[in-house]
Amino acid sequence: MHNQIETFKIAVRKFAPFESAMQKFWDKYCEFCGCTLKLEMVVMDLHELYDRTITQKGLANGDFDIAHISTDWILEGYSNQDFEVLNPFINKNKPQDFPKGWSKSLLGLQRFGWEVVGFPFHDGPECFIYRKDLFDNEKEKASYQEQFGKALEVPKTWEDFHQVAQFFNRPADNLYGSIFACYPDGHNAVFDFCLQLWTRGGGLVDKDGFIQINTQAAVDGLNFYRTIVNDKTAVHPKSSEFESVAAGIAFSQGEAAMMINWFGFAAMCEVDGNSKVKGKIDVDLLPSGTGQNSASLNVYWLYTIAKGSKNKTIAYDFLRFALAEEQDKQLTLEGGIGCRITTWKDAEINQIIPYYHKLEQLHEVARTLPQKQNWAAMAAIIDKMVLQAINSDTTSEELIQLAQNQINEIDK
Questions:
Q1: pLDDT exceeding 70 applies to what percent of the chain?
Q2: Report field, pTM of the whole predicted structure over 0.90
Q3: 3-state DSSP of the chain
Q4: Confidence of residue 1 (pLDDT cuts 50, 70, 90)
Q5: pLDDT score of 394
């Protein structure tokens, strides 16, 4: 029987660090456990990965054994029975230090009632990333003090963020105050809107569980966002073409003083050989509205076992191996973001990426997007609303009312 199953297939999110880490884990696992299957990695970008695993039922049909799945898709996949429920495996032989080896904020989205359908793979919430060499520069400090009559500090409010962005905006030096990722892909503008809303004390969901964006916090957030994104004296001119990866790369090339983006792009500045800002950056909590608390957004990647896999025992055994402390740390050294608390606190990692330990405090303020069957459709409405705010003169109040009416149609 054994010879019929010669390959083991993993659906991998296209990103060089993920690809190299998965290959290393598998080689090490086979050496350690005597597994004779050959690894076949099917490497895909975001849209293709979602399409092949979820839309085309690749997990249910057993086209793959294991898949990298974003928490944005986990409810849909669970509802369609695409994933193997992991509890029987965990009860028999749980992963090292499970569940307490991970932050609670990385264990919730893949759990439905008692059923667990995924393990944390790669993480890194949204955070405020900035050039500490600019903020610490004595000449810059003196010049800021003279211009604004106050000290140059890491901005705690959005108003200060805007002012500091204008201060550091120097097109002649190919340095801009800040970068936003405004490419219309149904993700980045939505994330930015949620962060503006949350850091102004607002929420996405009302007390009855319905999406409710027609609030003052939403109006204030959208007004601020459309103003700063269109401010040529504060923002990188290519922001409208950037998605998060392109924004991260521009930042690593020294093209901006500040950026709101995923933690992984801060780490990239330290481990990527092409980075021009290695050793010059730091991360912090996002600015907020005056008198409000900071917030972050947590979307993370999971390992899942395909419902249709013929190799479930091996798949679980391999995941236990891949989840161990040593491999979680290895993923980080490859350029991914390990999920274990031990990795966040690891001395060697924090020497290479000096702010790595801050992941813990970011997770304390991190929120997640609502788990709704048709969240993708609602996100598309919000995405369109934000883009119209940036590209038209229609008031934020009107745009939000219009979007709310459309959301009400489908939020049943």
A1: 99
A2: no
A3: CHHHCCEEEEEEECCHHHHHHHHHHHHHHHHHHCCCCEEEEEEECHHHHHHHHHHCCCCCCCCCCEEEEEHHHHHHHHHCCCECCCHHHHHHCCCCCCCCCECHHHCCCCEECCEECCEEEECCCEEEEEEHHHHCCHHHHHHHHHHHCCCCCCCCEHHHHHHHHHHHCEHHHCEEEEECCCCCCCCHHHHHHHHHHHCCCCCCECCCCCECCCCHHHHHHHHHHHHHHCCCCCECCCHHHCCHHHHHHHHHCCCEEEEEEEHHHHHHHHHCCCCCCCCCEEEECCCECCCCCCCEECCCEEEEEECCCCCHHHHHHHHHHHHCHHHHHHHHHHCCCCCEHHHHHCHHHHHHCCCHHHHHHHHHCEECCCCCCCHHHHHHHHHHHHHHHHHCCCCHHHHHHHHHHHHHHHCC
A4: very low
A5: 98
